């Protein structure tokens, strides 16, 4: 009898991520990760990324906040 997860027929892509979290600056993330069993960290991080942490659709233009406020003001007039 085999133990563990069955082999998936899907192609897997390995992505190794190294984080350096700083005490005093990243305390919330450190505390969050410390609540997770090591075997659940990857799935929890994937879930967090899927729920808004990836920033898809964000543009990196050079518009300033003043330009944005002006455009909103013009739109509302």
Q: Would you mind describing this structure in some detail?
A:
The chain has 77 residues and is mostly helical. It starts with 26 loop residues before the first helix and ends with a helix. The longest helix is centred in the middle third of the chain and has 13 residues, at 41-53. It has a domain at 14-53. It is built from 3 helices and no strands. The radius of gyration is 21 Å and the shape is elongated.
Can you describe this structure in just a few lines?
With 77 residues, the chain is mainly α. It contains three helices and no strands.
Task: List descriptors.
77 residues; mainly alpha; 43% helix; elongated; 3 helices
Counting DSSP H or I runs of 4 or more residues, the number of helices is: 3
Fraction of residues in helix? 40-55%
| Helix and strand pattern | HHH
Low-confidence spans: pLDDT under 50, at least 5 residues?
A: none
Number of strands: 0
- How far the N terminus sits from the C terminus, by CA atoms, comes to 72 Å
Average pLDDT rating:
84
Q: What is the overall silhouette?
A: elongated
Please give the radius of gyration in angstroms: 21 Å
Name the structural class: mainly alpha
Question: Topology of this protein?
Answer:
Blueprint: H1 27-34, H2 41-53, H3 65-76
